[in-house]
Amino acid sequence: MPHRCKKPEAYLIITNISKRQNVRNLIQIGAAFGVRTIFVVGQKNFNFDVQTNDDDDDEQDHHDANSSNNNNNKSTTSDIPTAILDAVKRGKINIIRFDRLEKCVEHIKSLPCCEDAATAAEAAAVEKDKTDATVVEGADNDEYSNNDDNATEKASSSGEKSTIQILGVEIDPSSINLEQEDVFTASTAFMMGNEGQGMTTKQMSVCDGFVRISQYGGGTASLNVSVAAGLVLHRFFHWSRGDVVK
Question: Could you tell me whether strands 188-192 and 10-15 are parallel, antiparallel, or unpaired per DSSP bridges?
Fold first, then answer.
């Protein structure tokens, strides 16, 4: 299907992810397939500060092993993969944090679909500075406030004014097969589900639609969250360039 915007962009929303290695993998996979802005909602036990990542991957893996049985402790080293740390420091990749999902959705829906690279990077950097100063890390990874349903509804309904869509990667009766030609239409923010429970009702309520990944064997009911993200982002990357992918 033809693009509805001149230069489609992929965004990634990381929220309600339990395992540290999956968070790291999601960031690195996003970078590999051209994602320049990653939104992080909640995830209070994870560290996205570029200044604390002075260790190499081996040391980080050692840290992961020591902390795997105690996920309630916030990481003291950055969870930004070392391979892309320089790109984050230089603003080539922006990680923007939000304390609540509806605030993230509201921001995404306020972004124009078609921005040139310089404008998009500048806007993301400005927003990152603002949210770094105001973010409240009081929400659990899989918990969102239910006291502001009107804000969530408002954020969702604003989709009529924006061509950036939010797609959940989830097995749902309304999900579109990733292999369909018309699965993407514009710049898209992708949101993955939790490793065990999938997407929460709150997450699904803010999505404009869903995509699913077909499987052709009986090995498992679902794929690893970072593997699924890689498949979806790879498909979007080729679609955004006009490549024929079958």
Answer: parallel
The token duo for 241 is 């360039």
Dmax over CA atoms of the chain, in Å, equals: 49
Instruction: Tell if the pTM clears 0.85, that is, is over it.
Output: no
Give 8's contacts (C-beta < 8 A, 6+ positions apart).
Answer: 113, 184, 186, 187, 188, 236, 239, 240
The token pair that represents 156 in the structure block: 């969702």
Nearest to 155 by CA among 205, 191, 199, 200: 205
CB 92, CB 58: distance < 8 Å: no
Question: CB–CB of 180/245 below 8 Å?
Answer: no
CA distance 80 to 25: 9
- pLDDT (0 to 100) of residue 200: 92
Taking only the tens place, the pLDDT of each residue in 95-145 is: 999 999 999 999 999 888 765 433 555 555 556 565 555 454 434 444 444
